[in-house]
Amino acid sequence: MQPLRVRSEVRPRAGWMVMGKRGRPSALEVCRVLAVFVSLFPSVSLQCKILKCNSEFWASTSNSGPEEEFCTALRAYNSCVRRTARTCRGDLAYHSAQHGIEDLMSQHNCSKEGPTSQPRARTPLPPPPPPILPDSQENSDSPEVCHYERSLPRNTAPPNYTHCGFFGDPHLRTFGDDFQTCKVEGAWPLIHNKYLSVQVTNTPVVPGSLATATSKLTIIFKNFQECVDQKMYHAETDELPAAFADGSKNGGDRHGANTLRVVEKVPGQHVEIQAKYIGTTIVVRQVGRYLTFAVRMPEEVVYAVEEGDNQDLYLCLHGCPANQRIDFRNFRARAAEAHGAAGRPRSGSVVQGFTYQSAKAKCKERLPVEDLYFHSCVFDLLSSGDINFTMAAYYALEDVKMLHSNSNRYHIFENDAFMSNAAEQGKGFVSLLLLHLLAILLWTECCTVDL
To answer: Which of 52, 205, 281, 389 is the most buried (most CB within 10 A)?
Structure first.
């Protein structure tokens, strides 16, 4: 058996990796340009229709046919992707399609010049996808290295599973159980390690407001040994696919392909992605017009980083940057004050029909415990007026109950968050104090030498 620590040294064979440092030079250049573009024009990607190009291409090539027909469909796919260039430059699916087209052109010796008629689906129905095996058959057929817990050395302690959630307006629960409310408009990375990358795009909920919510989500699973090919899952508002971007529902053609699979729980509303080869489960939902994300992942996988990557920007690990955080306590105090001591809302304090008290009452219907999920619900109703955020907070807590390994940590309360922030500030103070002491000691030593 081969432990993950040994396995993690095997470099993925993907042609490019999101925000990694092992991609080919062209991919790195794309990432640099992409980062600048997204930061300057975060709202451009809202109009991206790359999924339409993908679905047309896969529909036209679902059955084997003459190489000439495939090349025609591929050129049509390339034309479709190029037409989306202006609105899709901040989209991971767009850049993945670009690289995929280049690879396919080379593999099939297709010329870039030639017929580019719009691809049409052939009359025969596409063959059914490879069957997703039940766990018993999957366990017996797949290599041992493709099952996270079975690949660990015997007589070792069970792995420590961690949870990260991202939902609502938006609210973040990190792998360390810190709970934050953030602005983070535009594209932001949640997770990036040797095995997968996750990026969200957040858009304003109400024009002129700091409140944003997730309208797009991209997950890239990097290819791994004999287990899985590189796969990308891409979802956006009103498009929650039950398959990866290439139309498949598992990890490809390798022997352990069924250790990565997409399972549709509720069509258009709830998808679960099981990546058993890295012990990871991901839940993606659409609630109202926006997406939610939750993951259960072994701690060892969380910290399996690329060499030289300090992961400072990845929200699930380190939280939102300080300048992107919203002070929950101050917002609630202002909302309560605006409502007035007499119990009647003051002028201008009602947002889309919700006062502080009516928002609390609405959230109480689904979230009886006044923890931070309850308070996030109140925050969302007051800042957006969108009643669907009530269900977003409710499902986020339900996902915690399904994915978190410690039942005593399902609920996080305001005092917990306050103490966590105080501890973080305390660490900074201690570090600063130690630096000052070191400087004094060095200065003293220098003075002694001079004397």
So the answer is: 389
